[in-house]
Write a structure and sequence with these properties.
The protein is mainly α. The protein has 14 helices and eight strands. The chain has helices at residues 3-18, 22-42, 45-78, 81-115, 122-151, 168-172, 175-205, 210-245, 247-253, 288-294, 315-341, 350-359, 361-376, 399-430, and strands spanning 156-159, 162-165, 260-261, 265-272, 277-285, 300-301, 381-383, 387-388. Strand 7 (381-383) and strand 8 form a beta hairpin.
Length: 434
């Protein structure tokens, strides 16, 4: 295997694993803040127990997320030195701000929140968890701004073979970045909501701490429904932006081969990549793709054949990822709506509780497929339209070196994953302390 392929594999392993923990951190922290707010407003000690119980799971998840995230940044220097050289002027300030202004704030106030229950006033302690929530999501924002520049580079000038920063404001206010942020964060909130509803369902089915888990469920049900609706609404806007900035990705998402006006969406189709067509197409909706992409049923949509073969994404994973992500997104709205309707006496609906328990893994899958769509759909570019992946890899490392590190990453991350999920599941099953 080539150095490029092995380096891509290593980064993919690290990213997928890291992103098993990031969404729960981003979404669960807002629920902790809501629960503690209700405690401060009502004086009900059960809400304090809720914040502490779900906070334990949050802290385990946060710790593993931090450990697995650090290695990603090191890989820019070890495996992707040409990439770092090309866009270090853009990436450097963004990652520096993320570390110093967001991550440090988040880490500091997590410590204050964890150890300050009996040392701070109720209101001061409440402020600490809200600051954690704001800082953790600010951290995500700066990372997504950096990633958005790779998807849609703006505010730069090419000089001496490097992309140099020309307009910091253009980079920060890149519309792709903000659409990614307002799509990713509600998706994380949806995941956290289903996580809390699923764990609550586990205990409600066993009649454990009924009042405690019923309150947890009610908060999560409302929270999840709102988040799931926002995900789909912003997702539509994000897809329209992709049509403007990454037309190759849009064509791959829909397995759309021939440029045409009034471009349809087929409810059922399957790509035949070898022959540059679809093996079958069933139930077309005329003009739907044109409208979704450009808000006009008569708009022209470029097909994959309009682009050189060496500039097309890998079709099948892009196509599948999009459909899985969208399908699960609408399923989440349905389940969240049912949970919201039945929230007042949810203990009387064991079938729905079982479904919600078994649903816990699905938001993880949806988010991982979403990132697959974002990153694989950008291929073969590491920076869309400016630099291809094959030109970004470090020239001084060998295949054997990267192979050893891939094996090491896989072993270490597997052990970390086993430990992390063991602790999360054990804590979730134990329930709150009496």
């Amino acid at each position: 295997m080539s150095v490029t392929l092995l380096s891509r594999l290593q980064f993919a392993i690290a990213t997928y694993f890291h992103f098993l923990f990031v969404p729960l951190t981003l979404g669960l922290v807002w629920l902790l803040a809501i629960m503690e707010t209700k405690y401060v407003k009502t004086g009900d000690e059960e809400y304090k127990k809720m914040a502490k119980f779900w906070g334990k799971i949050f802290l385990i998840n946060f710790a593993i997320g931090v450990v697995t995230g650090i290695t990603l940044e090191f890989q820019f220097g070890t495996n992707w030195s040409k990439y770092s050289e090309f866009m270090g002027d853009i990436f450097g300030p963004l990652l520096a701000i993320e570390a110093t202004a967001a991550f440090f704030l988040e880490s500091t106030f997590i410590a204050i929140w964890l150890f300050g229950w009996e040392k701070l006033s109720k209101k001061a302690h409440l402020i600490s968890i809200w600051l954690v929530a704001i800082a953790s999501n600010l951290s995500a924002l700066w990372i997504l701004i950096a990633n958005a520049w790779m998807q849609h580079p703006v505010g730069y000038v090419l000089r001496n073979g490097r992309a140099e920063l020309e307009s910091f404001s253009a980079v920060v206010f890149n519309p792709v970045a903000w659409l990614k942020f307002f799509h990713t964060v509600p998706a994380s909130m949806t995941l956290a909501g289903f996580f809390v509803m699923g764990i609550s369902a586990y205990h409600l089915l066993r009649k454990n701490n009924l009042s405690f888990f019923k309150k947890s469920f009610k908060i999560a049900a409302t929270y999840t429904l709102i988040a799931a609706l926002v995900v789909v609404i912003i997702g539509h806007e994000h897809a329209a932006e992709v049509a403007k900035t990454q037309p190759t990705k849009l064509a791959a998402m829909e397995s759309f081969w021939d440029t045409q006006k009034k471009a349809p969406i087929y409810l059922f189709l399957w790509p035949d990549v070898k022959n540059e067509r679809n093996a079958f197409e069933f139930l077309p909706i005329p003009g739907a793709l044109s409208f979704l992409a450009y808000q006009s049923f008569n708009a022209e949509v470029k097909g994959l054949k309009a682009f050189p073969k060496d500039e097309r994404p890998i079709i099948l994973p892009t196509f599948i990822s999009f459909r899985v992500m969208v399908g699960l997104g609408f399923l989440f709205i349905l389940l969240a709506f049912l949970a919201y309707l039945k929230r007042e006496n949810i203990e009387n609906y064991p079938k729905l509780l079982k479904i919600l328990l078994y649903t816990i893994p699905l938001p993880y899958l949806a988010i991982e497929f979403g990132w697959t769509l974002a990153e694989v759909g950008r291929q073969p570019w590491i920076v869309y339209g400016l630099m291809k992946v094959g030109d970004a890899v470090s020239p001084t490392i060998s295949s054997s070196q990267v192979f050893i590190s891939v094996v090491a990453f896989t072993v270490v991350y597997t052990l970390l994953g086993i430990a992390a999920f063991y602790l999360i599941i054990k804590t979730a099953k134990q329930g709150p302390e009496n």
